[in-house]
Design brief:
About 45% of the residues lie in helices and about 10% in strands. It is α/β, with parallel strands linked by helices.
Length: about 290
């Protein structure tokens, strides 16, 4: 049972089918009411804020090991962008991992993938799942400029991008927009970016540390702040990449991009959306969001 719950079944993400199965096992009216059509907000809150163990503890029921394993969803791979170029690091793959660890009541909770990696000893062997993303690739033309928007661990692929482009002698410019809560503790790869600026591998670096001042500042604010320059880069043929959180960041960044091209391109109505759609169709606006 330990092996199945550790390596084969999803135990950190609670699902509606499991809640329904557990409600039947527990014969629990409270859980059954959550499954009613008019209780969707309450159910959504439960799924977002609880793990399987929380449900089992809050509403005890008699499960056999076989039935419990059968009711849980198969464990899904956790996907991390490769943060390196083999032309620089050789036969390695570097990852940028935020160790998810938080208190929930009296209990300590972890992210399944990040904690699994963080708890491994040096030299441990781990299973690896590879997923190709053909749409998130560097331009074949090394003379093209590249704009990279990667808050938090979304900066990972751009470390690999800059390594790759410098290794192959690409002549295009590189502009990185990076954000995180605090500069002192969350400036990922700080020394590498600063060194890249000094030797000309990175032409521009704009930062947004949201909690270092009274007013929160995010990468989308930097996009609007430097909108004229951003639009000029796009008009000059630059490729634009966005990587990171899909729930809010990617949406807010897209809205900022729309405002930038509308303002500095003099576009009205749906024309700004059409401009961004055209970039996507040309392979010049790519997103890797999760």
């Amino acid at each position: 049972l330990r092996d199945w719950l550790t390596h084969h079944r999803e135990v950190t993400r609670l699902s509606r089918p499991f809640v329904a199965s557990h409600a039947a096992h527990a014969r629990n009216d409270t859980l059954n009411r959550l499954l009613a059509p008019d209780a969707q907000p309450a159910l959504a809150a439960l799924l977002a804020g609880s793990q399987v163990i929380d449900l089992l503890l809050a509403h005890p029921a008699a499960w056999t090991a076989e039935d419990l394993v059968a009711a849980l969803r198969p464990l899904q791979p956790r996907l991390y962008s490769i943060a390196s170029s083999r032309k620089v690091v050789g036969d390695e793959a570097h990852l940028t991992v935020a160790h998810v660890e938080y208190a929930q009541g009296d209990a300590l909770r972890w992210g399944a993938g990040s904690h699994f990696l963080a708890a491994r000893a040096e030299g441990a062997q781990l299973p690896v799942f590879l997923e190709r993303n053909e749409r998130f690739r560097l331009p074949s033309d090394g003379a093209r400029d590249v704009i990279m928007i990667g808050p938090g661990t979304g900066v990972a692929p751009f470390r690999g991008f800059v390594q790759e482009r410098e290794a192959v002698g690409a002549t295009g410019r590189h502009w990185l927009l990076f954000g995180n809560p605090h500069a002192r503790t969350d400036f990922l790869y700080q020394l590498e970016w600063q060194d890249a600026l000094k030797r000309g591998a990175l032409q521009r670096l704009d930062l947004a540390f949201s909690r270092d001042q009274a007013d929160k500042v995010y990468v989308q604010h930097r996009l609007r702040e430097h909108g004229r320059t951003l639009y000029d880069w796009l008009e000059g043929g630059a490729h634009l990449y966005v990587c990171g959180d899909a729930s809010r960041m990617a949406r807010d960044v897209h809205a900022a991009l729309r405002d930038v091209v509308a303002t500095h391109g003099g576009l009205e109505g749906d024309a700004a959306d059409d401009y961004l759609h055209a970039l996507q169709a040309q392979g010049r606006y790519a997103r890797d969001v999760y």
